Amino acid sequence: MSRIGPVLIVSDDAVLRRQVSNLLRNAKFVTHEAERAEEALEWANADCPSVVVVDSDLAEGKSGYEIYEELRQRIPELPAVFLSGKRTQAMDRAVATLLGIDAYLVKPLDPDGLITSVRTLLERKLERGESTEAELAPFEALTARQLEVLRLLSAGRSQVEIATMLGLSSKTVATHIQNILAKLDVHSRAEAVAMAHTLGLMARRETSLAV
To answer: Which domains are seen in the chain, by residue range?
Structure first.
């Protein structure tokens, strides 16, 4: 299947990069960080991102706009969120829109605005029909119990909490989680949750898997 890619964060500001990454990871997104254009392009080639968050206020080298254009050459229609503390006028936003940038956020960063923007762009990809049968097939291999566990993981529940809610032992829940990761061909709980959110699986299963 074509695996759901991470959110790529491009900024030469280490503090901002870490802040953005932490916020998105706490919201159950998988992230990769890149300090320079070369790193961003390497990540794009190796692990195709689903969304890119770009700092437009880069100190040296290529501008954020130039980096985004190069990424778009490799990944057509790549959704982008731009962060800026300098270009904050209406004209700047208009130019960004003309360049194909989907969301334009002003620093200091609004955590809710960032998370909402990234989630909206991923949902928009889903609405365009970019989730194929091949992408959805691994989820069909999950049992009803495994889907329950995945839904609770997506809701931010811990392994112990899931065990209590489902009347299972913590060891049994751990086994379910390992089987989920294997069936989805991912390496972490965060990746499994990100795939489920991106493909809209949790919303689709909400009524049938209510606890």
So the answer is: 7-127 (3.40.50.2300), 133-205 (1.10.10.10)
